[in-house]
Records
---
Amino acid sequence: MLPHVRISVIGCGYLGAVHAACMVGLGHDVVGLDVDAVKVEQLSRGVAPFHEPGLEEVLTEALASGRLTFTTDPSAIAGCDLHFIAVGTPQQAKSYAADMTYVWSAVDTVLQHATVPEEGPAVIVGKSTVPVGTAQAIADRVAGADLDAVVVWNPEFLREGFAVQDTTAPDRIVYGLPEDRERGELGRAALDRVYAPILERGTPRLLVNYPTAELVKVAANSFLATKISFINSMAELCDATGGDVARLADAIGHDERIGRKFLRAGIGFGGGCLPKDIRAFMARAGELGVDQSLTFLREVDSINLRRRDHAVELATEMAGGRLVGVKVAVLGLTFKPDSDDVRDSPALDIAGRLWGRGATVVATDPAGAAPVRAMRPDLHVVDTAAEALDGADIVMLLTEWPEYVALDPARTRSVVRTPRIIDGRNALDPRAWADAGWDYRGMGRTASTW
Ligand code: UDX
């Protein structure tokens, strides 16, 4: 029989909602706590408050088992053996640093409402992405409070669009444990019970100290961001020389030490994680007096932001120097496909800037239209690609949704006014579009013979 743990998940946003539902699948009883009554009500009905493939199925099954509840009442976490902290740590409005308000308020909730199980201390497991040093600070606060609890840091690595898969079949699990070996063992054993079905499959589990666990997450995201900015800087070189960055990435990617993944040049990275994580990491390094160690991330960030400028300049150049009155069809607004997330989305930023330059922007997105309409009522967002493309002077593919990648160049040509396309994600076949009469511009890529 599977070990059974009574779990609370504090914070039912992207991370917490997925985590709560998936923990039921592992055989546990879960209560998800959030301050947002609307979100709690939706989740309780099995409705995902955001677009995430597979989540509603997992939610529905977990709710039907009777072992998953969502609530706004913090007293519901009493009686749980283990508490996951899964609240957000967004970028602060006026600095690069992470806003830790929600983490500390989650810790306060646990200290006020958690109880100590019969068989040993309560366990508090941090999953939020936090500045290094936070786990120890939380452990110190807990030690000074009236609750016998062990703090463990257990970073998540989930990607939007693959969140369920990344939670139930992660490629590794990291536990950041306290220095006190006996307490650490208690924390390790508790998390081993939670993740038993995953660990039984041989998933690597790394036992490390607090700072290492906290650094693993930001180091991984910094590496990924660096890889993307590296290939985007190569795209700039390709633009200057006539090279093709996609073929370049294919060629260097065959070297196993480099690998082809995360070498897709384009308009750069966005979303709720990579941009804010590298900035918070730089801010923390500054506080620690080692800002020089991460100066390269400043460059990674600027290369990334330069991609957006480049896309806007390219559109302006293609329009003959002025965008006023030029109809631009923007295909894609989310930061990546299979997501409705427009946080720090390069596509949305570019659409807004084109509009600012006087272009008649008509944008569309299969999942991001609703959030953009709410956020940017000034932007003209239509429901279908056909409406956006109708009579366009320039087409810009900014998020590589499969339905845009599958557009037929000849048929699309027959509906636009002028066949000019900017492939912001290098997702199209340049030759096929050029052969159909389009002026095709990729990111560090042209329609060359080879
Ligand atoms: C990322 C990390 O991948 C994940 O491990 C971490 O837990 C959270 O942050 P996510 O934000 O969901 O996940 O998106 P990801 O798939 O990593 O893409 C991030 C951005 O980089 C997107 O805007 C994407 O379009 C862009 N990207 C990705 C590129 O521009 N080129 C690439 O080669 C890969």
---
Amino acid sequence: MLIVQKYGGTSVGSAERIKEVAKRVAATHDAGRQVAVVVSAMSGETNRLLGLARQIAAHPDERESDVLVSTGEQVTVALLAMALKELGYPAFSLLGHQVQIATDSAFGRARIKHIKADRLLSALREGHIVVVAGFQGVDAEDNITTLGRGGSDTTAVAIAAAAKADVCEIYTDVDGVYSADPRICPHARKLSRISYDEMLELASLGTKVLQIRSVEFAKRYQVPVHVRSSFSAEEGTWLVPEDPSMEDVIVSGVTSDLDQAKITLLHVPDRPGLAAKLFSPIAEDNVVVDMIIQNASADGFTDLTFTVPKGDASKALAHVKAAAPEIGAAGVAFDADVAKVSIVGLGMRSHAGVAARMFQTLAREGINIQMISTSEIKISVVIDAKYTELAVRVLHDALISPAQ
Ligand code: ADP
Ligand code: ASP
Ligand code: MG
């Protein structure tokens, strides 16, 4: 049996914690399992490194930024391999390029293209414990790349898929995936299992417990993923394929995303070609537009509103301002104090009235809904950022679990 275990930043946040992780890995090895371990940088380290880079340059060179931030994981693989050797176990560390985690060249957000797991697999077969640096890979020109924040999750699941592991355990600082962020919502409940599709939605709508690409890999290769705490032995949450009983639960989770900015083009003549003219240059600049709202009004003019990630807001705004005169817009408005709050659940497919209950719940608290978007298994609203946590709590209590 082959297990891939991934330990996040808090789980390897100090020498003491690394020794604890080594004991857990050793116990798994003692139980007769082959173990590959993926580790993150110590908690706070990636942010510290990014901060240093910003003291050198306002927009640090992307290639060198990846060389820099990947060092965080180089430290923890070495320390964990040392700790295992101290306990008498045959362990060694491998960096992304040594495993051969091949990625594209999108520095800071690279995608894994393939993993050549031969060296890893033969070492495991020989009884070694292999400790792999999370978050990093190598492109076709041998440049170091990184996979985006939270990318060690993706390293772990991709390795589990490539090595055909029996399970991928994601060890973190909470004991599973909850119905809402337990740090925001006191009544949040641990889910014993969740479907890949619901987890994909939650991850893409702001739940940072798993990086979205790790869930994509898990779904595509049907990797059983077990999210659990490195601080206890309790069972956590299993990511599993959907089964019919899951539709009985209408809403599985509530989540929020503060990484949103809203741009509005005011009083635009309602003509064909408007949206194409506006959004083509934005797309060409690699900005992902999220929600879009356009309402045709009786007098032939419309307001057009859309959201983008905060980090891309100035790029998007520049394109909008450039296009506004040509399109005939009366002006451009911008608001970065917004949040997207979403509910996710397979049961929404077959149950009516969920949206109405969501909107009533927000209305009772006086929270104004600025935008709405729905899909088969989710409803998202954009609201004023200052009400984010309140909205998560009241929606959770109304739609998942009432206050006890
Ligand atoms: P790691 O450093 O182990 O990768 P992360 O900080 O990336 O850990 O993810 C764990 C955190 O995710 C938790 O501390 C928790 O606050 C947050 N979180 C947000 N939403 C949820 C949720 N629905 N269930 C569990 N944790 C959540
Ligand atoms: N160290 C990286 C980060 O902080 C990757 C990870 O922890 O998953 O985003
Ligand atoms: Mg994480």
---
Amino acid sequence: MARRRQLYEGKAKILFEGPEPGTIVQYFKDDATAGNGAKSGVITGKGVLNNRISEHLMLRLQEIGIPTHFIRRINMREQLVKEVEIIPLEVVVRNIAAGSIAKRFNIEEGTRLPRAIVEFYYKNDALGDPLVSEDHIIAFGWACPHDLEEMTGHAMRVNDFLCGLFAGIGIQLVDFKLEFGRQWDGDDSHIVLADEISPDNCRLWDTHTSEKLDKDRFRRDMGSVKEAYQEVARRLGILPEEGNGSDLKGPEAVQ
Ligand code: 5GP
């Protein structure tokens, strides 16, 4: 296979030039980092699981009319996506206090918030992705008011839909992070959901036991990280019941 041009390597994914103009191949790695790179490791099989989970969720969101960058999954670790201009913001939606909001306002983890809260963080590793206001975003030109309105609207719809989807499989959607991109059509642009949606960027708790089924298991050294991701995939119906992960090995699974 001809080697493709690598465009970017992030903490959990590599982006390659796609086969047609305006497309990109997203390769899901097994690498995991936390605390802005302070902690790193490899979770064998994570990339394969996240590729499948994100494909499933993006397709379900497209069915309800959320525009996304997802085109199709290519193989175990890769998916074809539309090339978009990434907006340098992390859009976080929270239903239950956990992680940074619990710390910032001294709220006990697990406390249900009065309503869903949308937050914006400026994507900048050197600054540690600081929380920003809508005024910062507009004043510094990271997005215009119309983009912001579209992102907030999409984020709330994604939250409503995913809360229901996960509730149906015994999982509470505590919070999650989205990234959006701008897709140009001549002089016009519109906002599409980009990146991935997976246990790497969602907090997912078992409804009955509150067991964590997400990347906090890695961040907090709780162990059984891959097993938790597998459990999410199994409940979503995208992993055979008896799946033991033997099909989720390393790069040899790419073909
Ligand atoms: P927190 O602000 O509490 O650390 O994170 C809120 C939610 O957004 C969590 O579900 C977390 O997984 C996700 N999130 C926030 N920032 C990042 C990030 O830089 N990378 C990833 N993978 N997830 C993030």
